Amino acid sequence: MNANVTAPAQSQSQSAPSADLGGAAKISARNVNVYYGDKHALKDVSIDMAERSVTAFIGPSGCGKSTFLRCINRMNDTISICRVTGKITIDDYDIYDSALDVVQLRARVGMVFQKPNPFPKSIYENVAYGPRIHGLARSKAEMDEIVEDSLRKASLWNEVKDRLNDGGTGLSGGQQQRLCIARAIAVSPEVILMDEPCSALDPIATAKIEELIDELRQNFTIVIVTHSMQQAARVSQRTAFFHLGVIVETGPTEQIFTSPNDRRTQDYITGRFG
Ligand SMILES: Nc1ncnc2c1ncn2[C@@H]1O[C@H](COP(=O)(O)OP(=O)(O)OP(=O)(O)O)[C@@H](O)[C@H]1O
């Protein structure tokens, strides 16, 4: 609970990332460093992520992708040995500002994990849980509307509308993951972070989630960590390649996969390491 979080003034040690995002920047990180005790896991990371688009983080295991993703909704605060420096803004608002309410931040910045993790509650209650905590519905009818709307946006409504009172954990893995996406959507976030959301799913369930991600980007800013370069190529508009705790290269996904600027990116995408 006691991550030591500081947000120094922006240093000039790293050049600003490319402004050519193809849209406004929703999330900006400048000179972010993350330490787990003495381990320097993330080094001077600076990147802009465009609004209503999908940014993919790729790179070999242990290079810091999940660590950086967790910085964006301050999930690293829950790791006592973790210390974050640098600056991350969402809509120009410093998310490490001491006045910020982290619970509200996590409503604005939802997260979907590797393994589907529905609550041991009904399908309806899984989705209603967040809106209830945040007081988003004034009546049962309003809550019903939020639940239906969230399940529709997560492309799950038609499959579950007749069994909303059944347990969420009784759904298939792919359905559970879409339920978790509905749960994230239900509190009207602006950003959805996804940490390898398809790694526990079969190819058909994966294809459904990828289709869904493409629809969701009309309304949400999405950041996804994936081990699958094919998936990054299919779902994202921009890709950042991480290696040994640094971002080696960021750019339009097509360019990263067809003509990367850095030799290390080239080696990774051609399977020479990782
Ligand atoms: N809770 C933690 N405590 C200590 N070290 C950690 C913790 N979480 C991550 N690390 C270390 O930080 C580094 C980056 O890990 P991280 O999980 O962010 O990498 P990753 O690129 O997401 O890896 P993967 O693709 O395997 O999930 C690794 O060396 C890892 O061992």
TrEMBL record:
ABC transporter domain span: 27-269
A Pfam family matched in the record: ABC_tran
UniProt family annotation: Belongs to the ABC transporter superfamily.
InterPro entries: AAA+_ATPase (IPR003593), ABC_transporter-like_ATP-bd (IPR003439), ABC_transporter-like_CS (IPR017871), P-loop_NTPase (IPR027417), PstB-like (IPR005670)
Coiled-coil features, chain-numbered ranges: none
GO molecular-function terms, A-Z: ATP binding
PANTHER family: ABC TRANSPORTER I FAMILY MEMBER 17
Presence of keyword Transport: yes
Keywords of this entry: ATP-binding, Nucleotide-binding, Phosphate transport, Transport
CDD domains in UniProt: ABC_PstB_phosphate_transporter (cd03260)
Gene3D superfamilies in the record: P-loop containing nucleotide triphosphate hydrolases
Protein name (database record): Phosphate ABC transporter ATP-binding protein PstB
Bias (Low complexity): 7-19
SUPFAM superfamilies according to UniProt: P-loop containing nucleoside triphosphate hydrolases
NCBIfam families membership: 3a0107s01c2 (TIGR00972)
PROSITE patterns (UniProt xref): ABC_TRANSPORTER_1, ABC_TRANSPORTER_2
Region called Disordered, residue ranges: 1-20
